[in-house]
Amino acid sequence: MPEHDGLMRVFWPVDIARSDLPGVIVGWRNSGSDFVVVTVLDHVDPKSVENALKTDILLRNAPHSRPRIFEICGQSSMHVLGLINATPNIEYDPSWVRATTNAADRVPILTCPKASSIQIILFERPIPLRMQYISLDPIVLSLADKDDTSLYSVYDGAKAEGERLDKKNKEKNVELVEKRTGHMVLKHAPSKKNRALARIVNQINWTWELEHLLQKNVALIGTRPKRTLSVSERVVEHATTMRDHVILWVWDMIVLYAFPIIRTAFVFALLAHRLAAEVLLLILEWRARPNSPALKDISATAQQVEIRLQQFCYWPMQYVKLRLRKNDWESVTTSHPDYIRFYNSLWLVANDVIIGIALGSYIIDNADWVADTINMLLGQYTINALQSSISWLMGWPAGLKLNSELALFLGDLFLWVIDYWASCIQKLQPLLPRIVWFIGFSSFAGASLPIALFSDLLSMLTVHIYSFYLASARIFHWQLTILLSLFQLFQGKKYNVLRNRVDSCDYDLDQLLVGTILFTLLFFLLPTVIVFYLNFALARMVIITFKAVFDTMLSCLNHFPLFALMLRTKDPRRLPGGIRFELRDTQNRHIINPKATTHFQSPTSVIILKPTPLKFRAMFHQYFQMGSRIRKHYLSPRVLFCLVTGRFVPPIHRQNLYSLQYSMLPARRAGIMEMWEALNSLPAKKRPVKLHPYGVTTNVNMNGRRHMNGRTTREL
Amino acid sequence: MLTTAPYLRTRGAPDAREFIISTLPPLTIPLRIALYTLHLLRVVLGLGVLLLLYSIWTLSPYGSPPPPATGYRITSERSTCPAYTSTSSLPLPSKAQIQDFLAAALSSVPGRLCTHIAKAAPAWILVPAAVAWLYTLTLRIHTEERLLVLRGLGVQASSTKDTLLGGGATTRFIPADKIQDVVINEAFRGFRPISYLVVVVEGEADVVVVFPKLLPHKRVVEQVWRGVKDCLYERPRGRNWALDADGKV
């Protein structure tokens, strides 16, 4: 699309060195009037700069491949964009911009004869060495390479209805969006400038690194005197850098001989570890039938061990990926989320172990006391409290006149089972300190493990409550169903299974009589059953709440975005959440600089581009998702209906709950061979030829010479 | 007096225009003075609430008992925290100094009033009330919502946050190639129909509502809409968005 208007857009880095010297502006030309300034080269001839850019002289000594720059920045070469503080008599291209800077203002004054109006967009360069970058879209902290649905593909007999509803909603949304597209009256073809933004963002990310490279190479084209050091200066330099030479030489020897051995040993250790992990994982994931739950679906401990093993399997792969980053330009930003993820999980595990050691030593020191407390709690709450509540129900609770005989029968039944259970617990009691000791010992592998073990212990030691709940719910549900069908009979109606509706039906007198009598009987017995059912349902809910607390603790220990939070406070530019623009008032600029307006000046608007840091809400996005999932599962009318009718409330699927934790892991773990290949593909450690590609600019030359010397000494 | 009905103001060049809808009236000197006094009042009230919270804390069984008379305090400092006396040369206030200051605050007139209130009412009523009061003290008085339109770059909608603590404004920048269209939509809100400006974003299910809090009048919305069209797209020859009186394209 040809550009109708002469709007010129210049992206100008505010933090490049400012001087009043004449210079050449170098940068990317995305179109005739869309410039991204990379740097300003002082005291050079624009023609020679243009030639040097064409022949890549200015990109010499690049630490990494040069085509990569042009590939990511989307242009085939950089160009001379204009002149800065130029003397008026110099001849120049009409498409060039002329900039003048003054000390008072950070913003240069731009003029261009071709442009009718100018947008200067000022930005502060992100520093790639500190892993800062800007991006249009917020950084994604979780691995998003898998479908959510793949998680529940197996063992979802009780797949939540909510999921299906979600899917339906999504489909409806897609349909609506399509409809909306159809309603658009006029389609604006995006102009070249509109489409360039994504490319420009990359170019901005590259500015810092390219500027340093260009400034380093500017001596190659300039007329600056190149002076070699005199003999005496060399002697002085040698003397001052002697210590460094020796250290460098020792380091070089280590890299050359000791490193490969250490490395091979490490790789083999990793592989052995990976093999062991594979075996354990196979056990944890083994299913008797495709639909039966695996060990990790049942037990929190197994799940926790599985997560840790998966992490151990994933770390080498992540590390390899991050190591390969070193072989590329710093400005390539694609692996920064991986970096954050890797160190987040490392840090979390380290934290986990630290907390675990504190917790473990406490538990081991006080094993007897902990065991006694657990025993006391168990006796008091899961046995005594239950017994007393049952005996209370067997009398007339709260003045409610229940059916004494049925209450006595049910109460005796439950009391009898409780007695038996109590004797089992009694047998367990001497073992308890050992178990607690074991749990305490396990916590040296991380605080999450004892928590998971306690969670499992809780479900094991309250298995009687679970079974009481199941039994009473079954009785209640059975009675309720019979009552409903008898109520139909009482009305002279009948449920027609074939047509799935209620038909009227002619009953005989004796049928009606017996039915009515049964209905009355069951109806009067119902309150007794309800009371028992409620008692156990309540106990069950309390246990579920406890387990939810344990699960929350686990998910906090395993997934908390600690590293991201730290980065957010330390350097928000490392967690880009998009960009924003600010319009600066420009009215008084022309008044202040009356001299600049002597020649033609087009109206200029000054815009500041700023990165926005990632929102805290986005960091905890996974937690919100999990919260909403739990809420949908447990606080839905369906669950209430199940509770009221005595149907079994299915517990939320572990996988569903733990999708949070798996969001940091790939859907499929890398195989052993894959890992072997990846580890071997790692480049050998570089010998220390270039320690600091961007050393402090003043002693760049010194560095280069020192390394040269280092090499010659070694060869001798 | 401090706020007005939302009104529109624009600034910037034709290729980079900002539409600002704000409830802050033009700043005159009396208004400035009123606003400064209000902020001062907020700070004072906030400190008072904090003092109340502290007095509740000292009265609770978890907190330290209210600092006793001066003579006793000196002996206790010497005996319990000798480490702090050595660091008193540092510019940071020592623990003893902080305690002294808190004790002085508690024994002042407002401090005694706070203690009186804390004794009179139970903590479970006072603490949530104090927290809610602190929250209301940080609420913003004015709302300001902006729409920045940059030709060739895109549009950016921003609106101020509810509280002063939340920082500046929430912004949302939509690149120009993602903008499907900018339209005026109509909807029911309560029992009255409203018109609001909407940016339809490509590939997103939800549209972006511009000026979501203030929801200005239809006249204003239309004006902004014309401005956006004018600024965002290069005007085809012989066509003027602003002259399309019936609002159709």
- Main sheet strand line-up of chain A: 6-5-4-2-3-1-7-11-10
Shape of chain B: elongated
Mean pLDDT of chain B: 81
Tell me how many strands of chain A there are: 11
- In percent, how helical is the residue content of chain B? 40-55%
What is the alpha-carbon Rg of chain B in Å? 28 Å
Q: In a few lines, what is going on in this structure?
A:
With 716 residues, chain A is an alpha/beta fold. Chain A has 24 helices and 11 strands. Among the domains of chain A are: 195 residues, no CATH class; 197 residues, no CATH class.
Task: Tell me what you see in this structure.
The complex is a heterodimer of chains A (716) and B (249). Chain A has 24 helices and eleven strands. Chain A has helices at 46-54, 67-73, 161-183, 192-195, 197-217, 231-240, 242-284, 295-298, 300-325, 336-365, 367-394, 404-428, 432-442, 448-461, 463-490, 509-559, 562-570, 589-592, 616-619, 621-634, 637-645, 654-662, 672-681, 700-715, and strands spanning 7-13, 23-31, 34-42, 79-84, 97-100, 109-111, 117-123, 493-496, 501-504, 576-584, 604-613. In chain A, strands 6-5-4-2-3-1-7-11-10 form a nine-stranded mixed β-sheet. Chain A has a two-stranded antiparallel ribbon with strand order 8-9. The longest helix of chain A is centred in the C-terminal third of the chain and has 51 residues, at 509-559. Mean pLDDT of chain A is 81; it is low at 146-158, 589-599 and 690-716. With 249 residues, chain B is an alpha+beta fold. Chain B is built from seven helices and eight strands. Chain B has helices spanning 29-59, 70-80, 82-86, 95-107, 109-120, 123-137, 218-232, and strands at 7-13, 16-22, 144-150, 154-160, 169-175, 179-189, 192-201, 208-209. In chain B, the strands form two sheets. Chain B has a five-stranded antiparallel β-sheet, covered by helices on one side. In chain B, strands 6-7-8 form a three-stranded antiparallel β-sheet, covered by helices on one side. The longest helix of chain B has 31 residues, at 29-59. Chain B is elongated, with a radius of gyration of 28 Å. The A-B interface holds A 3-5, 7, 9, 34, 117, 119, 121, 136, 173-174, 176-177, 180-181, 184-186, 188, 190-191, 193-195, 197-198, 578-583, 585-586, 603-605, 607, 612 and B 11-16, 18, 148, 150-154, 156, 158, 171-173, 175-177, 180-181, 200, 205, 233-235, 237, 249. Chain B: Residues 147-212 form the Phosphatidylinositol N-acetylglucosaminyltransferase subunit H conserved domain. Chain B: Pathway: Glycolipid biosynthesis; glycosylphosphatidylinositol-anchor biosynthesis. Chain B: The chain crosses the membrane at residues 33-57, 121-141.
